[in-house]
């Protein structure tokens, strides 16, 4: 991990839904090569942070910089072009398309056909189940397989930063292990990851650092090891007393 280069920088970010503040003055850094976990209870603002980074939601205050350039007001497709891919909560695969077609859709900003084919093969080695089901309609697959497809599709854009929203939600423990194995593997290949995850134990086991959100604000931050031993995190998020 290269500690020196800031890839993503969020300064004083505020987001409102109507008059209701969802995110309040959030400051966050992610260095190149890191996995950073964003943890917190439901409704704490984690998903909103990811949606604001990827341009789906607009900030009411503050700014977001990626590789030193401001992206706060960019359209979502421009943000993808800059190198940020977002795997939303609930997966959002194209149900009526096959696995293969979904993967090709992930590469829509690219023109390099041979490299795209190569990357599809790489996704099949990352998630062998997808290879077995490449001609199957995505909507007919299990939740775990859809999650693998959603991650693989996001990686087809060759992102520098992958935003993952609740990748383990509703999945069997064995599948969750497989998903996290893939996240680590992708990270070793050089993709940085910002991970929103309710499975705090899994998230902190995979992450270098973490931020804890409560009611729209960051209340604790630190190295993953520090957070595992933090009294609040232990009690509230790891169920240890």
Would you kindly provide a written description of the structure presented here, covering whatever features stand out?
The chain is globular. With 241 residues, the chain is α/β, with parallel strands linked by helices. The model has no long low-confidence stretch (mean pLDDT 94). The protein has a domain at 93-158. 43% of the residues are buried. It contains ten helices and ten strands.
Question: What's the arrangement of secondary structure elements?
Answer:
Layout: E1 6-17, E2 20-31, E3 35-40, H1 46-53, E4 61-66, E5 69-70, H2 76-82, E6 84-87, H3 99-106, H4 113-126, H5 128-132, H6 143-155, E7 161-165, H7 173-188, E8 192-196, H8 200-206, E9 209-214, E10 217-223, H9 224-228, H10 231-237
Parallel strand pairs: 3-8, 3-9, 6-7, 7-8
Antiparallel strand pairs: 1-2, 1-4, 4-5, 9-10
Helix pairs in contact: 3-6
Whole-number average pLDDT?
94
Strand content: 25-35%
Cα end-to-end separation: 33 Å
Helical amount among residues, as a percent range?
25-40%
- H/I helix tally: 10
pLDDT < 50 stretches: none
Number of strands: 10
Main sheet: strands, sense, barrel = 6 strands, mixed
The structure class reads alpha/beta
Radius of gyration: 17 Å
- How are the strands ordered across the major sheet? 6-7-8-3-9-10
Which of globular, elongated, flat, extended, rod-shaped describes the shape?
Answer: globular
Order of helices and strands, N to C? EEEHEEHEHHHHEHEHEEHH
